[in-house]
Amino acid sequence: MALSPPETTNPGSFSNDQKEYLQGFMAGVIASGQYAYVGTNAAGQLTGAPGAAVTGNLAAPSEENVFGTPLGDLSKPERWKHEQNGLDVWEKLVAHANADKFPDEADTFRFKFHGLFYVAPAQDSFMMRLRIPAGEISSHQLRGIAGLVDEIGNGGADITTRANLQMREMKPRSIVRALTRVQELGLTARGSGADNIRNVTATPTSGFDRDELIDVRPYAHGLHHYILNHRDLYGLPRKFNIAFDSGGSISAAVDTNDIGFFAVRVTEQTLAQTPAPGPQTLSPGIYFRCEVGGITGHKDFARDTGLLLKPSELVPVAAAMVRVFREHGDRTDRKKARLKYLLEKWGGFPKFLEETQKKLAFPLVYAPRGCAEPRKPVLKHGHLGVFKQSQAGLNYVGIGVPVGRMNAKQMRRLADLADHYGTGEIRLTVWQSLIIPNVSDAFAATLARAANSLGFFTEAHTSAGCVIACTGSKGCKYAAADTKGHARATMAHLRKRDPFLDQAVNIHFTGCNHSCAQHYCGDIGAIATKLTDGREGYHVVLGGGMDQEQGIAREIFRGVAADEMPALIEKVLVTYRSRCTAGETFVQW
Ligand code: SF4
């Protein structure tokens, strides 16, 4: 059947990648007939287009149960979701803004569907989290956010570990203004909290990485917009993370996600060595492996499903998998509600993939890993510093932002730098840093110096380059310690004492077992705890990593007082330096 993009789009305005992914939409996100808006009728004609309203039989929650779970067995947030969909509280938002009033517990949860987090008692105010697919933000948008936080926030914003932005200390009276201002900038906060799909991430150097196999931004943006336009992809059993990796020198940390796609190259040679099994035939080209079930806070990475997907199949497969999770995930116990536990309940991947297949109009193809070239090694700190782009004469400059925190003045200045030395493009990274691309050879060093003079850094360094921290007790009620403050103190101490390692290590401070800073993936990780004497402290884990250094860090020290952390970490680094063999990484040590 010949397929074409929907009439509402102008094919000429899309890149080839984007056209291919739109074809994927058309080719059959859903075959079962449940989701008629992207199916085909008996004559093979499209019955809907991306972005159309949900009109099919969605097996929606009934009066008696939610996807088979009796109402009486639902967890508290599930009951709130059943009583009122968090997407439908706009009038309540307006009413709370008009009355300058904070919401009750149930609406506090529902407001997170709009990216608004009432964070009492840590702060008697709202935090607002955006969605920035692929971490791609323009200078105009960053300047707009700077204006917004100056007027109705605390004058700053944080880069998160999902390459996203959060703004804090907004009063109820400001929330509607904040949401509309964000939308006027071409951004959104819809679904960035509660039980929804988090910011869709992608390799931050997509489109200019000299080693990338494919630019993955079209798929991250495509999925982002697909989610925004499909209500049934909200209100999942729990939050959900999806990432796309270009197969280049910088990773997207896909193995830490519920679903991770990474690009691989299939060649005549790999197919000769490892032919595709069964009747299926594979042509040489770029495909994606698909990993699922990552949740590092629960000490698990995503694992290979055996799937080998065409680029055009990524968005449909992601949507189908999310829908399987939506219908079958646990809605009684929040601790068991992530995808990992559904996979465990089903005894592994086969049933999950079988259910996924039922929602697709094309057959899933399985192939051994050997059918494709192995992924190139990742350049661990290739997001910091000046690097050549695939475009001759151009460079990207990776800029470290200490614990991800920027004030409005710094944001405006960064926007100016991106305009003056680049093309106004900025990429946020999952390492709480950012990248300014498209800087000519003549100006790359100048831009790096300007960034350094703003209080940022452009070098992966033992003491500074790789410290990340979650929000911590200054802004999150779950935190047992001031993670950002303690991370900063550690950076300052190490900078002064400089343990002179020949490689930078990643140090992750996280405030509670939600593990937003992914402490189990750090070379050194710290998870906050309250000491018996009431002081703030940390349990310290060592030897974690991701990608080719994948490993869950092991706990080595328990209950270290926060003010002793800088000296302890220095000692760990000095010991490592004196005992590691040449080239031995922290995870191997
Ligand atoms: Fe809050 Fe815990 Fe996440 Fe830190 S890890 S931001 S304390 S929920």
TrEMBL record:
Keywords (A to Z) from UniProt: 4Fe-4S, Heme, Iron, Iron-sulfur, Metal-binding, Oxidoreductase
Pfam families given in the database record: NIR_SIR, NIR_SIR_ferr
Lineage: superkingdom: Bacteria
Nitrite/Sulfite reductase ferredoxin-like domain residues: 124-179, 388-449
Family, as annotated: Belongs to the nitrite and sulfite reductase 4Fe-4S domain family.
PANTHER family given in the database record: FERREDOXIN--NITRITE REDUCTASE, CHLOROPLASTIC
Protein name: NirA family protein
Source organism (scientific name): Oleiharenicola lentus
Source organism phylogeny: Bacteria, Pseudomonadati, Verrucomicrobiota, Opitutia, Opitutales
